[in-house]
Amino acid sequence: MNRIHHRIRYPKLLLLLATIIVAAVLFQESKDYGPLHDFLMSLGYIGTFLGGIFYAYGFTAAPATAVLLVLAKEQCLVLAVLVGGLGAVLSDLLIFSFIRYSFMDEIEELEKEKIVKYIEKEEKIIFGHYYKHIFPALAGFLIASPLPTELGVVMMTSVKEISLKKFTIIAYLLHCLGILAILAIGNLI
Predict the structure, then answer these.
(1) Separation CA 138–CA 156 (nearest Å)
(2) In 33-163, which residue ranges form alpha helices assigned H by DSSP?
């Protein structure tokens, strides 16, 4: 067992990637979202909360977005945004804590790799003194959108200065903005 561990340099990161890929493949195979959709509709704001939870994960973001679009016409926009944002930020906190406390050793090792150092050097050359703002902005965009939030959270965890409290506030506001946009579109259609 010890020999295998030495051959695989980033086992936790590879496992995370594998679980995301497996979940995405399994989820794509299931084309019938009807029962889940109907169930969430019957739950009202609890459905919005659950929609927010699923909105935060890349492989469930599309059906969660669809559920939020449908729920938009049946709920108070402000309350739905706050409830959906709460569900999403709870998912982010789980991801953030898991990555920050379980993967930090591998992230620190990964930062020492030549290719990572090269990419960081090139980014600094391309973006100049805006470099420190581009990375968090991209992470924020990923968190707010129905794109893979996990990537944005991983990017945020790598910013060592960000506390759990700051991350929670930022992630909540970003999710509320993203869910507001979705619900506003849902009200228009």
Answers:
(1) 10
(2) 34-42, 45-55, 61-71, 77-102, 104-111, 114-127, 131-144, 149-157
Give the amino acid at 43. Answer: L
Tell me the C-alpha to C-alpha distance, in Å, between residue 136 and each of 63, 132, 165. Answer: 27, 7, 16
**Nearest alpha-carbon partner for 96 in 178, 27, 174, 40:** 174
Per-residue pLDDT of the chain in tens (189 residues, 90 and over written 9): 455 555 777 776 777 676 666 544 544 444 445 565 566 678 889 989 988 998 888 767 777 787 788 788 788 999 999 999 999 999 989 888 887 777 777 777 777 888 877 777 777 677 677 767 777 788 888 888 877 788 888 777 767 677 889 889 989 999 999 999 989 988 887
Number of domains in the chain: 1
Q: Specify the DSSP class assigned to residue 112.
A: T
pTM: 0.68
Judged on CB neighbours under 10 Å (0-12, 13-18, 19+), 157 is buried
**Cα(11)–Cα(179) distance, rounded to whole angstroms?**
34
The SS3 of residue 189 is coil
Domain housing 29:
2-188
Residue 73 DSSP label: G
